[in-house]
Amino acid sequence: MTIYQTLLGADFDRLHPKLQQRYALPLDTAFVATGVMQTIQSGAVWMRPFYYLAAYMRFLFPESGTNIPFTIRNTCHALPNGELEVLWERTFYFPQQTRYFDARMTIDPVKKVVKDYLGSPALFYADLHFAVTQEGRLVIRSGLQRFGKVRIPKWLEGRVTVEEGYDDQKEVFTIHVFIHNPLLGRLMMYAGEFTPQSS
C-alpha cells in the first residue's frame, strides 16, 4: 500500500479506476506518461528574476505556451527509515527550452496530509490536502508552506489547486493545476492530457 492509499483510506476506492491504478504506485516501479499541455501560463513579467531562480531549482519557470509536450514520471521508494516516498519528475519541452518541476512526497498519517518538498534542492515545502470528488476525480489543495525552515506568511503563499481525472471517451488522464497568490495573482497555471507509457 503506497502513501496515497494510506492517506485516502476508503476514499481511495472512490477514485476513477484508472486513477486508482495510477496512484497505486508499486514500490520501485515507475509510472511514466507522456502528453501535451494545451496551455501553460506563468505570472507577471516583473517576476521573471524569481522564475529564473526557481527554474534553476527545478521548480517554477518563466515560460508560457500552448500545446507543450511533457512527460511525467512517478516512482515510489523506501527511505532508510522505512518511510515511503514518491518522487515526481515533470519535464516540459518548450520550443527553445526544456523545463523541470520536481517534488518529493511523503505523508503525515497523524495530520492526514501529504508532505510535499518542491524543487531540487527542495527549499520549498507545502502541506497538501487530498480529496476525492463525487465523480471520482482527485482534488489537491495546499496548506501550510515553508521556505527552508521558515513559515511563509499566508499573504506570500503560492496557493495550489490541482484536479486530476480520467476522460473515458478520449482514454487520457486530465490535469489542471492553478497556483496563485492573494496579492500577486496567478503564479502558474497548466492544463493538459497524458497517457501512460512503458516504464
From TrEMBL:
Ranges for domain DUF4166: 15-194
InterPro entries: DUF4166
Recorded superkingdom: Bacteria
Protein name (Swiss-Prot/TrEMBL): DUF4166 domain-containing protein
